Amino acid sequence: MPVQQEAPSTAPVAPVAPDGQPRRRLAALDGLRLFAALMVVAYHYIAFDSGAWPKSSKTLFPTAYLPASYGWLGVELFFLISGFVICMSCWGKSLGQFALSRLTRLYPAYWFAVVLVSLVVFVWPVVNEAPSWGDAAVNLTMFQDPLGVTPVDGVYWTLWLEMRFYLLFAIVAWRGLTYQRAVAFCVLWAIAAIVAEAVDNSLLSQLLLPDNCWYFIAGIAFYLMHRFRPNLLLWTIVGGCFLIGQHYLLQAHARAEEHMGHQIPSWPTVAILALFFLLVAAVSLGWTRRIDWRWLSTAGVLTYPLYLVHERIGWVVIEHFADHVPYYALLPGLVAAMLGFAWLVHRYVERPLARLLKRGMQRAVAEIRAGQPAGRTTGRAAGG
């Protein structure tokens, strides 16, 4: 999820109803985000060949290891939800507002996670080698992947992919998001991604994401169904995205087997992807309106910090306590502790820092528009 990830800092809110009153929050999406995050956590704690456990996961968790081996698919669910949520949150916003919302959403928790994970791995390099301080510093920019710098945590690869989605979607935000432009964006992005793959151009592939764009595009189409109504064109977009996406997903399946060190049947991969599409379709068609439990909104805001901090810190905890705590007590205890820690990060780091960052960036933009920093005067005015 690799997953925002992306998810907004508050629960998604449905479009305004005809009577002008906001519709109920889409708590079901928050539930799906939590489900995706826990899938990724299970994959890294049970199925991934991290070396943290004293024995193979198949030996320690003979029942759980097989379903956990498909947990990497939670990243694809994150991407599908991201297309839905980004289209929803961008509606009615200017390009500047869209950029500011993404900046304040992604960076505060990320900065904290990079520093924390670097320190933990530096102090306890029991599973992974500690990153150099120079590499950790580059990681703070979130541009380590394009710069060829080793990530502080392996899960951060999805963030660069999300940022490229935002860059492309900014084109629509710049012009002003409308139904027609959103549909055109979906169709043109899909065609461009196919062309990029056909001509085998690395630059175009880096920009257009031909192996992962299908989840974002389908998510946008699902949101258009939700905001307006389903039609044959939108269903065609979704269906085409599923058909092409499952092709690339089977390639990702082979890579996941390399990371796990064991092989698993491939047919459940496609079946799980189909389930993801059906679940998001249920949200878009309004079938989940009755799912409005308040705790889901809280759970939704935990997914991003949980995703950022769970992997390598969790491996350190497993390595230190696996010989002292029963495995089936250590694993759920660790997951519960990570969920609690994610809430603390959201409450006491992410939210306050996001407010400070937003105010600072708004002030900086206002000064740029005014032509000079606030509280200063030009030399001529000062001398006059």
Radius of gyration: 22 Å
Q: Count of helical segments?
A: 15
Low-confidence stretches: 1-23, 380-384
**C-alpha geometry:** globular
How large a portion of the residues is in β-strands, by DSSP E?
under 5%
Order of helices and strands: HHHHHHHHHHHHHHH
Write down how many β-strands occur, each being a DSSP E stretch of 2 or more residues. 0
Average pLDDT over all residues: 89
Distance between the termini: 59 Å
Structural class determined from secondary elements? mainly alpha
Query: How many domains make up the 3D coordinates?
Result: 1
Q: How much helix, percentage-wise, in residues?
A: 55-70%
Report on the biggest sheet. none
